[in-house]
Amino acid sequence: AKTLAELRSIRGGPYLKRTAGLISKIQKIIAKNGQEMLFAKIEDRSMKPMEVVVFNSILQKTSLVWQENNIVLIDGKMSWRDGEPKIICDSASRLDA
Question: Of residues 3 and 12, which shows the higher confidence score?
Fold first, then answer.
């Protein structure tokens, strides 16, 4: 698994990456298509947290994972929209269960 600092240094390519961190904040929203999705901030020992985007199809499979203070293992692709790195979640599991 890569640290958040390592992920920030990776540019180019929609390759699947793995990281782990503590969920510090969750924001659920209703997308334009009417489906629920969420944004989660994860933190590790790196200086900056990173946002994880969880679309409805993944959220339905992993809903129990997404609670503040859970430690999670995330597989996803990096997105640099608006110049700020985000992880588009493909799968997630709890590490502290």
Answer: 3
pTM above 0.90, yes or no: yes
Q: What is the pLDDT of residues 5-50, one digit of tens each?
A: 999 887 766 678 999 999 999 999 999 999 999 999 999 998 899 9
Whole-angstrom distance, CA of residue 73 vs CA of residue 18: 7
Q: What is residue 14's predicted lDDT score, i.e. its pLDDT?
A: 65
**54, 89 contact by CB (below 8 A):** yes
Q: Are 38 and 28 within 8 A, CB to CB?
A: yes
Q: Where are the beta strands (DSSP E) in the chain?
A: 16-30, 36-43, 50-54, 71-79, 86-94
- Counting beta carbons within 10 angstroms of the beta carbon of residue 39, is it exposed (0 to 12), middle (13 to 18) or buried (19 or more)? middle
Residues 6+ apart with CB under 8 A from 86: 50, 51, 52, 53, 78, 79, 80
